[in-house]
Amino acid sequence: MSSAVNWIILVVAVLAAVVAVELLRRLLRSRRVNGRFSLAGPIVERCTWPGFATAGLVAFNTGYAPGMSGRSFEFAVQQTITVLLIACVAWLVVQAAYAVTDVVLARLTSIEGAGNRRARRIRTQITLVRRVAAAVIIVVSAGAMLFSFPAVRALGAGLLASAGIAGVVAGIAAQSTLSNLIAGLQLAFSDAIRLDDAVVVDGEWGRIEELTLTYVVVRLWDERRLILPVSYFTATPFENWTRYESRVVGHVLFYVDWSVPVDELRAELYRLLREHPLWDQKDWTLQVTDVRPNGLVELRALMSASDAPSVWDLKCDMREAMIAYVRREHPQALPRFRVEDGGVRPGEAVGPRDDARMIADGAPGGGAGRSTGGGPFRRAAADGRGTLGA
User: Which terms in the GO cellular component ontology are assigned (predicted)?
Assistant: First the structure.
C-alpha cells in the first residue's frame, strides 16, 4: 500500500474519532439526556477538549504505520505521539474526576440547616482529595513520559541505587512544602476547619473561602482576602465560630442611669426581638451585669441568630432600637454623672478652678465642698463609658 493511501486512511481515522466525540458531546448536551443525568453537563463542560485531543491521538497512533515518515523521522514521530498521548490521557482522567466530584459538590452546597456542617466537612475533604489525586496523576504521567525514552530508562537503573540519598536531600529541600501538604490533609480529615466556616484569625473575622494543600484563603468581612499557609492553622490558635453549628449568641451592652426601669426595658427588648426576622426564636435575656465606678449601671442584652453575619445585624438593630426607646420613653435614665456644686452659691459666677473642682468628683457626698442648694451639675462621660449602648 502506498504512502499516500496510508496518510489518507490516517487522516480519515483522526476525523472519524473527532466526529465521534462531537456526536457524543451533542448527545450529552441534548435535553433528554442532560435532564435525566446530572453528570452529563459537567462531563461536557470539562472533558470536551481533552476528549477531542485523546481521541485524535489514539486514532493517529492506531492508524500510523511504520515507515510513513521515513526512517530519519520514525523515532521522533513515534516518541512524540507517545508523550502527547500520555499527557492527553492524564488530562482527560483529571478532568473526568473533577466532573464527577463537581456533581457531588454542587449537591452538598445546596444543603442547608442541620446537615450543613456535615456537608461542608465532606466538601472540604473532597476538594483536597481530588487535588491530591490530580497531583499524583500528573506526577505518574510525567514519570511515564520520561521512561518512554530509552536513554532515561537506562539511566533509571543507576538512579535507583542513590534513591535513598536523593530522597533525603529532596525531603530537606521541600520541608515546608511537605509540612503544608500534611497539614492540609490533617485539617481536612480532622474537621478542624471547613469551607465556609466563620473564623477569627489574627484578630480578623472572615470565612474560609478556599482550602488548598499549601494555603488557605480567608474572605474577610470587608471583602479583603487573607492568605495564610496551611501550617498556620495547625500551629497557631484561632477561633472557629461554626465548629459544631453556625448558630451564634451575641450581646449588646447598655450603660444607663440608676433610675432605669429594667423590667420595662426587658419587655421592650423581647417585643423587638419577636418582630425581627433575624432572631432565631431561641436565646434572649436582659440582665444587670455590673455597676460601674462612674455611677452607671451596665445592662447586657443577649440574643441569638442563625449565623455570625445575622447576629451582627441583629445586634446593631437592637442597639439602635433600644437607644431610641430609652430616649423616647425614659429620658431620665440616660447616662449621666452626678457631682456636687463645690460650694458655689446660687447666682454666683463660676470660675475656672471651681468648675474644674466640680467636674473632677463623681458621686454625691464624695467631694469636700458643701451643698448650697444649687442644682447638680451633669455632664456626659468623656471616655465613652457614659454612652447608652456598647
Answer: membrane
Residues found in the chain? 390
Residue 242's identity, in one-letter code, is T
Q: Is 194 helix (H, G, I), strand (E, B) or coil?
A: coil
In a domain, residue 373? The reply is no
Cα of 317 vs its chain's centroid, Å:
26
3-class state of residue 247 by DSSP: coil
Kindly report the pTM of this predicted structure: 0.58
| Domains contained in the chain, number | 3
SS3 244: coil
Q: List Cβ neighbours of 338 (8 Å cut-off, separation of 6 or more).
A: 295, 362, 363, 364, 376, 378
* Nearest alpha carbon to residue 196 among 95, 303, 111: 111
Report helix angle 40-63 to 71-109, nearest 10. Answer: 170
- CA dist 174 and 100 (Å) reads 32
pLDDT digits (tens, 9 = 90+) for 347-368: 555 444 444 343 334 333 333 3
Q: Tell me the pairing of strands 204-211 and 337-339.
A: unpaired
> How confident is the model over 290-316, as pLDDT tens digits?
988 888 899 999 999 887 788 889 999
Alpha-carbon gap, residue 254 to 159, rounded angstroms: 73
The CATH number assigned to the domain holding 194 equals 2.30.30.60
The Cα–Cα gap between 105 and 153 comes to 41
pLDDT in tens, 246-282: 778 889 999 999 888 999 999 999 999 999 999 988 8
**Last residue in a domain, options 333, 352, 377:** 333
CA distance 352 to 347: 16
